[in-house]
Amino acid sequence: MTPVSLERRVEIETPEQTVLSYTLAGVGSRASAAIIDLLMIVLIELAITILLSETVGVFHGRSSSVQRMSSAWVIAVVGLIGFGLLWGYYVFFEAIWDGQTPGKRWLHIRVVQDGGYSVSFGASAVRNLVRIVDIQPVPFYGVGLVSMIVSKSGKRLGDIAAGTIVVHEQRALLTAAVHSVPAAATAPAITSRLTEEEFALLGRFIARRTQLDQALQASFTSQLEARFRKQLPEDVRGATAKLIRLFEMESDARARGLPAPGAKGAARERHAIVAINAERWREFSNALSAAQRSGLRAMSPDEVSRLVSLYREVSTDLARLRTASESEDQDAIFYVSRLLGAGHNFLYRQHSLSAKDVWRFLSLSVPREIRRSARYIVAGALFLFGPMLITYVAVVRHPELERRLNPPNMIDRVIEDAHGDSLGKHEYVAIKDFERPVMASSIIANNVQVTYAVFAFGITAGLMTLLMLILNGVGIGAAMALYTNHGVFHLIRDFVVAHSVLELSAICIAAGGGFLLAMALLLPGVHTRREAFVLNGRRAIRLITASTLMLLGAGTIEGLISPRTDIPFAVKASVSAATAILLAFWFSRGRGDDEELAAEDFAYSEPRAFSSR
Fold it and tell me: How many angstroms separate the CA atoms of 22 and 409, rounded?
């Protein structure tokens, strides 16, 4: 009997209707990969910082204003790069390296989609954005660790939302499980002498005997010699030599389909399948290894055709082997399944995106999804603007609420701004020209992170998304009422008007993505919750794409235009109106072609994963 493995496996069915077995990556290997990736991020950012600092040195000796401005831009760029690395590193590498980051590649693990397919850009984006939930409490990944331990498939929440699993990708050596006819087996056996359990026990000893110390090897040899005394050949001297010879004879008998004591007819077929096809499996393993090194594009048509042909033949072999094994967990099945799984992942990997694909996604797919998800976006707007309006009215009517709803530093700032305004200093925030790039980059990073959180926390059944929207609405409403009560509402109005359309719309759209995740959990409809998470997660990533682009623009305006007092309110209002017109144009793109959404809906056509073992 095959010993019980401590590994967790998951089985999936391919389009060829072949069941494959994947070994799931454990917490240890995934944590180690995450640490390696974190070190890589730190090193990359450090290298970029040094490079940009050297660039600033070119301005050394120039006027102080030029040097300050160049330094400010360096700090701004480094800040944005750091933020981009934090959120984009994993998505970038998983996209170009087919589900692997440098850390995952080092430890031979890979992200694949449910069904064994190569991970898509959208799935990678979803799983990594939800990382903001899994990482809680920062930086211990408590939520993610609990989820991986509880989930039968070892999934953190990001994997659940994206429909992905993390698996070991190393192909096991077939020689460890495939007992082909050995050259030394010259004397044909009349019949099989050992049961399947006995043969497996003897095979494990033969394979591992050289790894044992002498005392343990001698002890096992003595025990096996006593157990198989009646079956041992008489023409060989030495206990170890007799055991090896017995194993060769039994391998030969099974290769010829001779029955073991008590074995049924299927057992004969299983051993015959292994003996006959072992060489083909090795050929496929070698061809696949070469293909993985060079890539499909570097292969000739004949090489590709041969690889595909071998893949199909091995698929058939595995199906026959499973049938002949009568549900027994045989080593040969596991190893051939792992080999075929590697081939399946390679041949079904995602095609690289072209510039045309990206443009179509941004100009057509994104606006279609915004229109399709309008009710979720409107719900987000209600939970943001509703509390904002209620709080504003309440604080204006009851000024005593100011100190309960605004932090002390905000109150002190408004009093100072009101005093400055009375003296002719009409500005919401005092900022020098050379500080604006840094302000813009920090605003972009902060706002984008907030919207990512609003989206990702939708996986909490939308509760945290609702809470974040309400708290932000209350905070904005209380601040605006505070300025109104002190007679300086025009200061905050002049500051926010230019970027408000982009920023507030982006938050509402991200909230729509969060509500999509919540609906997958609460009301999955005709799909299972697992399927609904995948479908809604891929829809939501379009919304997050829109939010990210909009916040890039909003942050730039907020840092470079909004603080300036030399730009009249009318001009800033015109900027806001222009952004509204551009958004309306963008969101109307592809109108009339919404029926194509059925084809773009990422219909859950991948093979369903069977229960993990």
Answer: 55
pLDDT value at 3 more than 50: no
How many CB atoms lie under 10 A from the CB of residue 114? Answer: 23
Tell me how crowded residue 24 is: count the other CB atoms within 10 A of its CB.
Answer: 23
Look up residue 65 and give its two tokens.
Answer: 């204003």
Query: What residues have CB less than 8 Å from 251, skipping those under 6 apart?
Result: 179, 180, 181, 182, 185
Of how many residues is the chain composed?
Answer: 613
Residues 164/148, Cβ–Cβ less than 8 Å:
no
CA-wise closest residue to 377 among 525, 583, 596, 125: 583
Phi-psi region of 141 (alpha: psi -120 to 50; beta: other; left: phi over 0): left
Backbone angles phi, psi at 244, to 5 degrees: -65, -45
DSSP assignment string, 381-450: HHHHHHHHHHHHHHHHH-GGGHHHHS-HHHHHHHHHHHHHHHTT---SS---GGGHHHHHHHHHHHHHHH
Query: How far, in Å, CA of 147 to CA of 155, rounded?
Result: 6
Spatial separation of the C-alpha atoms in residues 393 and 120, rounded to whole Å? 47
Instruction: Give CA 524 to chain center in angstroms.
Output: 22
Provide the residue type at 582 as one letter. L
| CA 219 vs CA 234, 239, 246: distances in Å | 21, 11, 18
List the one residue out of 455, 600, 602 whose CA is nearest residue 517: 455
Closest Cα to residue 230, out of 261, 274, 269, 270? 261
The CA distance from 250 to 41, in Å, is: 55
Report whether 341 contacts 607 (CB < 8 A): no
Mean pLDDT over 43-62 rounds to 71
Residue 149 reports pLDDT greater than 90:
no
- Nearest-angstrom CA–CA distance, 334 and 555: 53
Q: Are 360 and 446 in contact (CB under 8 A)?
A: no
Mean pLDDT of 585-605: 61
Q: Which of 296, 288, 335, 33 is nearest to 172 (CA)?
A: 335
User: Tokens for 423?
Assistant: 């003296």
Q: What is the pLDDT of residues 361-376, one digit of tens each?
A: 889 999 999 999 999 9
Enumerate the β-bridge partners of residue 165. 112
pLDDT at 604 over 50: no
Domain boundaries, the chain: 9-168, 175-347, 367-599
| Cα 293–Cα 315–Cα 294 angle in degrees, nearest 5 | 10
Give yes or no for a cis peptide into 188 (omega within 30° of 0): no
Residue 364 DSSP label: I
Distance CA 251, CA 271 (A): 9
Own/partner pairs, 384-387, CB within 8 angstroms, 24+ separation: 384/469, 384/470, 384/472, 384/473, 384/504, 384/507, 384/508, 384/511, 385/473, 386/473, 387/469, 387/470, 387/473, 387/474, 387/477
Given pLDDT bands bounded at 50, 70 and 90, which one contains residue 244?
confident
Q: What's the distance, Cα to Cα, between the start and end of the chain in Å?
A: 17
